[in-house]
Design a protein that fits this description.
Shape: globular
Radius of gyration: 18 Å
Helix content: 40-55%
Structural class: alpha/beta
Strand content: 15-25%
Strand order of the largest sheet: 3-2-1-4-6-5-7
Length: 229
């Protein structure tokens, strides 16, 4: 059997298009910097997993954040459901896929996911998030029906995806629950959990690592604006 593929599905970070739910308190430029840091952390964790093939399904163009050792492919499909299905089809074998919203991922956790996926009697693995979504999904065999009808970016995504896997008769192992970065509060929690990541450093640099710091930064910007008026 060929080695499993670790897939990262991502959009190239861009101000005004990346992590817009962090604005405010972040500016679009700060949100894009956080997105880039989260993506760099994710890719570094994937790159550190021994024995796995590495693939980036990308919307946009690679930047300096991309390490060596990744096959890069343009995302295919209209909407996330089709793009997820295409990423698995293009992998050509067993694969585990993550996005760029969990920069606290470690090589050990990714390795755990691959071990679970390779276990006898397992067809799929699924990692839930605190907000009702999921941070990772693995399949022994690509099947576009896995994602059919599953609402994406919804508080019901994980439940619907788990039910879809059950409906298809796929025996599924559940991975640890993680916090994903969709709000500023979640960003602060992830930075507290993984303070040595690029993401945590970028959040500190933004001035929004705590609610109090964020408030002071807003007051400083307002004072500068008033002084310039």
């Amino acid at each position: 059997m060929s080695p499993a593929t670790l897939i990262v599905i991502a959009k190239a970070p861009m101000a005004g298009r990346s992590k817009t739910r962090l604005c405010p308190p972040c500016t679009p430029t700060q949100a894009a910097a956080l997105a880039e840091a989260a993506l760099a952390d994710t890719l570094a964790a994937v790159a550190a997993v021994p024995g796995a093939r590495r693939r980036l399904a990308l919307e946009g163009h690679p930047g300096s954040w991309l390490p060596s050792g990744f096959d890069v492919a343009e995302q295919r499909g209209d909407g996330l459901e089709q793009r997820l299905a295409a990423a698995f089809t293009d992998s050509g074998g067993p694969a585990f896929l993550v996005a760029m919203d969990t920069p606290q991922l470690t090589p050990e956790l990714l390795g755990m996911a691959l071990v679970a996926l390779a276990a006898s009697g397992t067809d799929a693995v699924l990692g839930p998030t605190h907000d009702g979504g999921y941070w990772g999904i693995g399949l022994q065999r690509a099947d576009p029906d896995v994602f059919a009808g599953v609402p994406m970016s919804s508080p019901a995504t994980y439940a619907a995806q788990a039910e879809r896997l059950r409906t298809l008769g796929l025996r599924t192992a559940v991975l640890p629950r993680l916090v994903d970065v969709d709000t500023i509060d979640a960003a602060r929690e992830v930075a507290r959990q993984a303070p040595r990541t690029r993401f945590a450093a970028a959040l500190r640099a933004s001035g929004h690592a705590s609610e109090r710091a964020s408030g002071h930064a807003s007051e400083d910007r307002q004072a500068v604006a008033e002084a310039a008026a």
